[in-house]
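Final report, results section. Input specification for complex C-07:
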Amino acid sequence: MVESTVKNQRNLFQRFNLEVRDHMLAWQQAVLIFGGLLLGLFLSALMLVVAGVGVSDLLNEFIISIFTSSRNINAVLLLSAPLVIVGLSAAIGFKARFWNIGIEGQVIFGAIGATLIANYDIGPDGFRVLLMGLVAALFGMAWIALPMVLRLKLQVNEIISTLLLNYIAFNFLLHLLFGSWKDPITSFPNSKIYDQFERLPKLAGLDFNVSILLALALVIIFVWVLAVSRFGFVLKFVYSNSKMAKSIGINVGVLVACAALASGALSGIAGFTISASIDSRLTQSFFVGYGFLGILIGFLARNNPLLVVLFSVMMAILMVAGQTLQVFYQIPFSMIQLIQATIVICVAASEFFIHHRIRLVK
Amino acid sequence: MDFFVNWVSVVPQFAVPFALATLGLIICERSGVLNLGAEGFMLVGAMIGAGATLVTGSPHLSLVLAALSAGTLSLLFGFLVITLRVNQVISGLTMVFFAQGFTTLVSTKMNWTNKAFEGIGKIDFGPLADIPLVGRLLFDQDIVVYITILIFIVVAFAFERTEQGLRIRAVGENPEAADAAGVSVVMNRYFAVFIGCMLVGLAGAYMSVVVSKIWVDGMSGGRGWIAIALVIFARWRFWPALAGAALFGCVEALIPRIAAVGLQVPQYFVLMLPYVATLTVMVWASLGKNSSGAPGALGKPFVREERN
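Structure output:
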């Protein structure tokens, strides 16, 4: 059975004892989290039924029609790619105890960087996409640099500084889209459409976009950096005890800075992925939701890159099914956001049972 | 001079949401609960305030209902962070995400979005408003402005001078000691979260019911986050928080003025002002004294007898 030290805790109700567990086997944790997930899905289904979707339609829209239609599978993969990347971005921040809540701002700046290259036709056509991706990563890094420096030099809380920069980035985006980057043909507030070679292509002979492979490649790099490289090893040390790490001569500041910059770069790449594979241009609202979802996916996956992929696909399925519900059942898309939040709340609640045990006192 | 009077006289209505939200957050955080969900509670307050006004026709009653609904949602937040001891940062962010979905969904379904209504007007003090310079600032405001001042006095008194205030401060500073003295950490934290979030909800309702007299999706526009920064800026004290709110009221009130006097500044850069100002005051606050003034147990869940 589970090792646990009994630390008696008198709860609100005197009949129950609340004990803190030290350790729980991995499979037991997985069962509990899966239980939380099921509860979240059950509550979500309940909300949809109350909103007027039939029980049999639920199964049909969320499972059968997703996996039997290649169009829907492609849509899920297309949405999953940027979600995986923002999930990794949040996870690398968490690993250094740096709360990057500014993913949305970095997504915006990444896409602005990519669009800059596309708009002014910088670099040879053949390498355009590659250059756009690199510049996006740099712009994402640049946008996290200020909160990172403020946190390391002045102990300014990065949760708030990164978040405030989201609003500044958004207003800058509108400044561009309603100003000099307005579509020259239609005068709509979005950038002019990317040329064919400025988009992430579909895979030759196959129907799906290369973006999911980009995301998976980043997952592999992430796994390598954290599990194999020296950086990952030291990061683990800093995560579990940064004072101890400092006292044996590890430069904690540099390490946190590297992790924060990596987080910004990943978010920037996610912005490039969205604009180069989904919209093929910069729009006013392309980034909406990715910030929170990235953080929630990173949290749900407990910073595990493989679980990031799993939860990203789950969120993407919800979003694709949500679009169908919107069209055929007049369910507002905000229902999907509510469902995603409900699932996170349930999984977070299930963690209570990983850390505690309730026992009836005889 | 006209520019100055016109500007200053509208400052209170921009300052009140910051003041109420910051006050609510301070109550919450002085009990040891970090509340990053402010933006969400504001949205709920704003949406329910507008919806209740449209349904009941009474904007005053709606302010109360809005505060109560934000308080009700805060019990879910409290359950997560106090009873289940879930990470407070994640829980707060989830509440914002939840509230964004919830308010948009409900207002769309109920058809409350973008519907203008009567709202609450200004109190007529007659000739007093004609006093030069300060007349309009002091005597051309709505009732909530005056109530806000009253709430500040009551809360500051309750916190410093009553036993309940002492209990909340104790569970936020040193929950182990409070617990040993027989003060319930759990109940006092729930109480502080409930009262605090009601004020944050009221801040949101003020924006929809009194200022804009309409509900628009996501109308709090980051003010909840600015309030969180103001708490740090005020070092968790009430009167500096009111001063900070007034400062940010000035900044926000400046935005429509800049366009009105015909200054040629790009519009979206002007709209960045509150956020840039917030960053600036956060840096300024970090340069000051060594201690931040944060409650001792802020952000830490309470677990009795953690040692073996």
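The CA atoms of residues 37 and 92 of chain B lie 4 Å apart. Chain B has a mean pLDDT of 90. This concludes the modelling results for the funded period.
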